[in-house]
Specification:
By secondary structure, the chain is an all-alpha fold. The protein has a domain at 127-158. It is 33% helix and 0% strand. It has helices at residues 47-57, 71-82, 122-126, 128-140, 147-157. Helix 4 (128-140) packs across helix 5 (147-157).
Length: 158
């Protein structure tokens, strides 16, 4: 005969696992030893038994429980990983490194060198779509071009 119907709360519930590297098993599985596995088709006779003996003699240690990390430690670790070694980070409030260059340098309007300093002429931007179309069509003409690229080139040609 079946037990009671409806939700049955477990008598000894498993703890909730943490995210990512803080996660731990909650199914009550082996925490102190890794299971031994027989490796078949070893090159020499008896190697499989030798491997089993090695596995039995050196059990895996239990996974240490993670230590909590504070928010400031996480921020410090992220900053150390993001910052390349040998290059100091310029703070946002630092004075400009180019005091004699206007803010509008490289723009089409305002003081300073125009778009020609960047190697871009104003008429070149209007033809950018046409040159992209030509590039796609040239790539699609290659024998190794994917069907998707060929379909795109065909739709641009219409």
């Amino acid at each position: 005969m079946a037990g009671k119907g409806g939700y049955q709360a477990p008598a000894n519930p498993a703890p909730v696992s943490g995210p990512g590297s803080l996660s731990r098993r909650t199914d009550g599985g082996p925490g102190s030893r890794q299971a031994q596995r027989y490796v078949a088709n070893m090159p020499n006779y008896g190697d499989g038994q030798d491997m089993m003996d090695i596995q039995g003699g050196a059990p895996m240690a239990a996974t240490p429980s993670p230590t909590p990390v504070s928010a400031s430690q996480m921020a410090q670790n992220a900053q150390q990983q993001a910052q390349p070694q040998g290059q100091p980070v310029t703070p946002l409030s630092a004075p400009t490194a180019r005091p004699n260059e206007p803010v509008t340098a490289g723009a089409a309007l305002g003081p300073g060198p125009g778009m020609s300093a960047l190697g871009i002429t104003p008429g070149q931007t209007a033809n950018a779509g046409q040159s992209t179309k030509q590039i796609v069509q040239a790539l699609a003409a290659h024998p190794d071009a994917s069907p998707e690229l060929q379909k795109l080139a065909q739709s641009l040609g219409q």
